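Researcher: Here's the sequence for the chain we discussed earlier.
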Amino acid sequence: ALAGCIVLTNREGAANFDEDVPLPSMFKIKNFDADEIFTILKDCCFNDAKYEEFKAMIEPYRNWIVNQHTQMRVCVDRFMERVTKDRMHLNSSEKASQPDDVF
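Model: Thanks. This is the structure I predict for it:
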């Protein structure tokens, strides 16, 4: 996708879910259909207007791929913040439950 290719995939596994592979549905082949695949490939290779149309349709997917590094960083930062807060809360709860005059 990043190299300007038109991505075709099936709908098995993660590719079936837009959250995991946010490609337009026409590029996700539900059942193997050689004629459907051939038509898309032929349009990409021999019809410049179709290739540009498909390329524009896949642009949001390209942007999604490029932003994955940033998204991962945000997720890790949020995770670390939550773990730290939970740990601090746990430590303060433990201290509060201990008697002051422990020998």
